[in-house]
Each structure stands twice: as structure tokens, then as C-alpha cells.
Amino acid sequence: xxxxxxxxxxxxxxxxxxxxxxxxxxxxxxxxxxxxxxxxxxxxxxxxxxxxxxxxxxxxxxxxxxxxxxxxxxxxxxxxxxxxxxxxxxxxxxxxxxxxxxxxxxxxxxxxxxxxxxxxxxxxxxxxxxxxxxxxxxxxxxxxxxxxxxxxxxxxxxxxxxxxxxxxxxxxxxxxxxxxxxxxxxxxxxxxxxxxxxxxxxxxxxxxxxxxxxxxxxxxxxxxxxxxxxxxxxx
Length: 235
Ligand SMILES: NC(=O)c1ccc[n+]([C@@H]2O[C@H](COP(=O)([O-])OP(=O)(O)OC[C@H]3O[C@@H](n4cnc5c(N)ncnc54)[C@H](OP(=O)(O)O)[C@@H]3O)[C@@H](O)[C@H]2O)c1
Known about the structure:
By secondary structure, this protein is α/β, with parallel strands linked by helices. The chain contains six helices and nine strands.
């Protein structure tokens, strides 16, 4: 994010305002996870593939007993996901989509050729349930949530975030209509969330921070343990 807390411009355009080192940091964090998670808007706006470059990061994963690249997970309530997006043209890792039965049948038909669909009859995807399915069906222990803001905020509100990776870039955007890390909402979070800083390093004019997010630790039903979720390098 910028020094004034913005993650993109008011047009929500893909913006490139962080360094090569920050991009490497993002890839390193992604490479640690069993799955990488993204909201439909970020997928569409940034047209990301969510892969890893060939070489060291993939080899380290294999040495750790992981697949060469993390499972790619998309979340959308409406389900109108364009099957022509770049992610569907890359076969680096399987793609799983969590959506609802509101997804039009024409979209379901095209997307089933490229991804596994999990469609709930509920009006919206239950994110905690989604994490449980990822653990149960795909043996996912660690999820790297790469945003955007709406998805991150929902995960925070549900107490599903353990770690925040945040890079502060040396820019100021201003503008009430440009989203912050938790979106455009003028509402407070239901309760303040305390974070403890576990790492900080500066690279050039950027500050790369790692926070442990203090969980509210509601008691969970037996057998409903969820995988750990981190947000890599919101830059
Ligand atoms: N600076 C950075 O590091 C960074 C990182 C990531 C993203 N971004 C930027 O953030 C912008 C997109 O963020 P965004 O906040 O507009 O959208 P987002 O969080 O990427 O996606 C939101 C969409 O995800 C789906 N969704 C399903 N369940 C949800 C839930 N429980 N909570 C929230 N979303 C849910 C919905 O899709 P449907 O509408 O299909 O139902 C919703 O509209 C882009 O401009 C992108 O470039 C910046």
C-alpha cells in the first residue's frame, strides 16, 4: 500500500507501484502456501495467473514435499467469471472456484473445463466452510490470501487471518474513493484487531512488514479446524 494507505487508485486499475524486491517477497510468500486465494474483482482487474516462476521457489517446494506451485483458489458469489482470463490459460496448478448456484449455467459449463467448481446454494460463499473444504479435500494447511480488499476484510471480520504481510511503498495517492487495505467502506470493523509486528525490513524506500494478527479465538466445533491464512505482501 501507499504511505497514505491506498492499495490502488479510485478506478481500481491494476497499478504497479512497488519494487522488484517487493514482487519477489510476494512470490516467496505465495511459494510457502499450499493454496493461493483471490477475490473475483482482483482476478479480473489484475488478470493474474497466480503461478510461480520456474526455478528455485518451485524446487524448494518440491523439496518440502509440496506440489511445484500452490493450488489456485478463486472466490465469487455471482460466479460470472470470464473463462478467457489468463489464469485459465495456464496449467501450472489446479484451479478451484468457490461460488454459489447463482453462477449462470453457461459460465458453469465453460469453467468446469478449466477448474473444479464448489457451488453452494447459500446466497454467498461461507469463507470458513471454504477453508474447511480446502483442508479436507485438498490437504491445504496454509492459504496465502492475495486480496483484494473486500475479500481480506471479510476474512478479517470472520477472524480467519493469522498473519499480515504489508509493504509500505513511497507514494501518496490521496482520494476518498481509492480503497485502503480494508476497502472503501466507511464502516469500522466490528472490533479493532490488534496486530503484533514480527518482522520489519527496509529495502530502498520501501518498508516490508510482517504482523501476527491476534485472533479472537472463538471456540470452534470439534473437527472444524481451519487452515492457517496469511496475506502476502499487499504492496
Ligand atoms: N495493492 C495490492 O497489494 C492489491 C492486492 C490485491 C488487490 N488489489 C486491488 O484491489 C482491487 C480489487 O479489490 P476489491 O476489494 O474490489 O475486490 P476483491 O476482494 O478482489 O473481490 C471481491 C469479490 O470477491 C467475491 N467474494 C465472494 N465472497 C466474498 C466475501 N465473503 N467477501 C468479499 N468478496 C467476496 C465477490 O465476487 P462476485 O462479485 O463475483 O460475487 C466480490 O465482489 C483491484 O483494483 C486490485 O488491483 C491491490
